[in-house]
Amino acid sequence: MTHRTTDPATETDTGMDTATAILEGLLTEEGSADPFPLFERARTLGPVLPAGDGVLLVTGYEEAERLTRDRAFGIRRTEAGEATGPGGTEHLAQRIISASLLETDPPRHTRLRSLVSSFFAARRIPALEPLIAAAVDDLLDEMAGQAGQAGTPDSGTLGPGAPDPSILGPGTLDFMEVFASRLPMSVICELMGVPKEDRHRFRALSSALTVTLEIAQPPEAVLAADAAAAELVDYFSDLTARRRADPQDDLVSALATAAEGTGGAEGTDARLSEDEMLSMFVLLLVSGFETTASLLGNALALSFQHPLAAAGLRDGTTPLLGFLDEVLRLEAPVQYAARMPLTEGLDVGGVPAPLGTVALVFLGAANRDPRQYDRPAEFDPLRTGPQPLAFGGGAHFCLGAPLARLEASIALPALLKRFPRLRPAGEPARRYGLMLRGYEKLPVALG
Ligand code: HEM
Question: Which InterPro entries is this protein grouped with (predicted)?
């Protein structure tokens, strides 16, 4: 990234200087905590803004939506539009994500997606309702139990010397730890067929891996991501071997069978290679977990800020889907997607996009575009207007969108009804990062 010139004599405050400063601001801790003023500054200069070094900042809804759907743009920088395979970088975590469907273009993307899409098809998701409702009930019971424990002299320990990360202090629980991260983890693990006793390892591993999705990647975080990727690959290699020996009705067994054969995809009998299969498992675990945990945390935080709307969720007078759409619009758990032109001669909203351009599609900015939404910064569960762009669009439209919506629509009312006096109990801490927007800690008291 280029830096602004600081010599006032030579500095011309061109749009590009400002755009570069905006991008740099977004990558700071303050910018990641509250990117919205910077998005607005960018938008006043145009819905698509060149920021130097071939980067475009896309903040307009229409431009963002069109770009995510445009097949002339893809995810990889390669001119042919085909993934280079998992060999291109020394970092395991990056190799795993690069080999996954999230970062590949057709035709490889089409093949990979077709192997898993049936598991997440909208028609199959309602069947998961009883499973999700049971998981929600169990977690609410545990919350009640832990809240009781949080009020005792032993609060904050699981026994001698073992701190319980769910308990922040007398009467105070961390909602992210005790509920928001555990529900999606248990649902995605259930779908994949990960045994219950193995799941406790995954929150930390999955969180460590998410740095791979961010623009700013501190070196120590990259090392931690590589270590987490190695552990997950080992785990899933082992689980695959177990499922091949004794197949079950789960996603790991299904993909293990699809990958069985000569060990390669193209030109072999197998429909996906072992590397692609392991990448898929890691991607599903990470994407099915962090994002939905953030949706639940962001929804609860917004319900604290809008107690009338929250009361309406308890007695059914606030439309649940309208409430969740407002959470997804104002506090999108995924704030941007990246797209690159696959051929010469393209533009984004009239701004030239030569090969090598990286367009940062700021979904969180598009969701507050005043050309689409009246009073865009206001939370209004009754609003009409286009669907928020929280799940992306086009070929990469979020595979788990119906599942995430179902989890949140079961969990949120159940939580608010079970604990009518649920309230914030201290300063929340946001997770750092520009792409994933959510809380690291969200302290709550139940009564
Ligand atoms: C609120 C929760 C969620 C949000 C906000 C979210 C957001 C997104 C977004 C924006 C994309 C598109 C990225 C791009 O275009 O580059 C995406 C893709 C994806 N999501 Fe989600 N997601 C959520 C939950 C889930 C869940 C529960 C799963 C399930 C397993 C999941 C699996 C995926 C996968 C596999 C992709 C890649 C699809 C592809 O490239 O074809 N997501 N998600």
Answer: Cyt_P450, Cyt_P450_B, Cyt_P450_CS, Cyt_P450_sf
